[in-house]
Amino acid sequence: MSNREAMLEKLSALEVEHAKALAGGGEKYVERHHKRGKLLARERIELLLDPDTPFLELSPLAGWGSDFTVGASLVTGIGVVEGVECLITANDPTVKGGASNPWTLKKALRSDEIARANRLPVISLVESGGADLPTQKEIFIPGGAMFRNLTRLSAEGIPTIALVFGNSTAGGAYIPGMSDYVVMVDGGAKVFLAGPPLVKMATGEDADDESLGGASMHARKSGLADYFAVDEQDAIRLGRQIVSRLNWRKQGPAPKPSYDEPVLDSEDLLDIVPGDLKIPFDPRDVIARVVDGSVFDEFKPLYGSSLATGWASVHGYPVGILANARGVLFSEESQKASQFIQLANRSDTPLIFLHNTTGYMVGQEYEQGGIIKHGAQMINAVSNSKVPHISVLMGASYGAGHYGMCGRAFDPRFLFAWPSAKSAVMGPQQLAGVLSIVARAAAEAKGQPYDEHGDGQMRAYVEGQIEAESLPMFLSGRLYDDGVIDPRDTRTILGICLSAIHSAPVEGTSTFGVFRM
Ligand code: COA
């Protein structure tokens, strides 16, 4: 099978999974929602955005591989409203009444993090049954962070706007409660700490939905609604009006006013990554199809050649790029990366990490040559670097190589995976082999014979398990990335992310941890 065929096969499998997220709770619930005269989450978002502008949906596969619906009953992403890049979240009321399950919470917290790091105004399109009651133990206590985050964003001067279309009860009432601006839809919004049955139980009082938490009551009596919307479209209009009056200014430098498109065709990006990741590929072929004018000024090209480092720009934004060129990271590559990251911090230049690494080199010669020390230098540089980072997993991203290349735990502003990516502590065969060696040694130590037949079965089982757990849909389902993307969209997505990133100041540092020499 050609590289292209292998990639296209993975892309069509990905499309099937994305379609599940788009389908939300399925036909029955979508129909019921429309019959009630309500818009779907994505329809609300589409009307909110400036016409003909893109929406970068984040983590659409959240919850994949779990018992919950793919997408985790929440849509999140970055879009432009009245010319302002905003972080938009929308509950999907067709999935379990929009209730928040553990994956919904993870997705919501991730979107808060993106809003905070990049200074993006937040617009919450609210219609949720609150906590998913059967899994409340997973979400009740950590879920408080959703409300804490909203007010912390506000404290940092990042505007928060809630458009309430439907249910927003109990803890959910604090989404509008903690937002700077609140719009409520007449006949739809229901914002109360306790609904009629609970009030009856608690105090014996008889009350109805409207008097406890309707839009009219909140706009006229409690003052929780700043704006009263006659219907959903009106709420969206009011949301746009609020953004237009924020007087919002981006704090990062503007991109170059003009730039060239890549000379080489992005379509070729389907041909580059081999179906078998053991076969190396040259990331310069990727870079040339992603950066402005296909121009990549390589830094230290003759030294540590297993890692390409260099300067370029994407949609007019200057970037430094670190790209694995041949799987393994040696001491030279680690030192080169550390130097390059420091240089990017001196010139306030964002960094892009293109992953295809099996990790740091192992073996006597390399241990004696200080591979841990040099890898630690690179991890120190990545961890303490203050310029924005974006990671793209193109192929392998294994072991500490994932860390050194700014893996998820190293807080890249965004992390995306291509369908060809794989990430784990090590490759499935290696991991199964290590387990086998350890088990054999344990049997020997006890003086027991080793079960060779069982060993073969164990290896095959473990290999299968690790392979499945290394795949991008599985990792995306667990929110270990912000989405699995078509390689051909890489340039556009990097452009949207870089533009969003420049809503916040872009500043490097000269303060790193002590570099072990
Ligand atoms: N946890 C788990 N499942 C929930 C849920 C919740 N909080 N809220 C709704 N669901 C489920 C329903 O059981 C139903 O499942 P089913 O279709 O498989 O039977 C599905 O979601 C749709 O709910 P339904 O009541 O038919 O939808 P609706 O649009 O008419 O009403 C709500 C939606 C949210 C107003 C209503 O379901 C409700 O009041 N839920 C409880 C709200 C609550 O008290 N939450 C606790 C807050 S901390």
UniProtKB/TrEMBL annotation:
GO molecular function annotation: ligase activity; transferase activity
Signal peptide boundaries: none
A Pfam family this chain is assigned to: Carboxyl_trans
UniProt source species: Kribbella kalugense
Lineage of origin: Bacteria, Bacillati, Actinomycetota, Actinomycetes, Propionibacteriales
InterPro entries: AcCoA_carboxyl_beta, ClpP/crotonase-like_dom_sf, COA_CT_C, COA_CT_N, MCCB/AccD1-like
Domain of life from the UniProt record: Bacteria
Protein name: Acetyl-CoA carboxylase carboxyltransferase component
PROSITE patterns: COA_CT_CTER, COA_CT_NTER
